[in-house]
Amino acid sequence: MVSPYQAQGRWQHSSGGEIEIKVDGPELGAECSADMYWASCGGLPEETGAVINHPTVGRQTLETSKFCNGDGLDYFGFKGKMDGDKITWNNGVVWTKQL
Predict the structure, then answer these.
(1) Which residue stretches does the UniProt record annotate as biased composition, category Polar residues (predicted)?
(2) pTM for this structure?
């Protein structure tokens, strides 16, 4: 299962432009990091969303359970597979993570 925290960060779109993904939701507290919560609970609190700022689509907030769908990602019906620092979408677009 893909964690929204794996997708969080800045990405370079293969056609140009930058995408930024942030995880937005309730504070988990210092004793329980987001990765620990994800690993132990298999998910995130219901209120958690993925905030995606895309150069052509603009800013969208999606429920993480819809954005992180099984072993991949779902963004406006496009299916993405994460492999290391790349997300490859079923329309041929590739997002490369910026360090």
Answers:
(1) 1-15
(2) 0.78
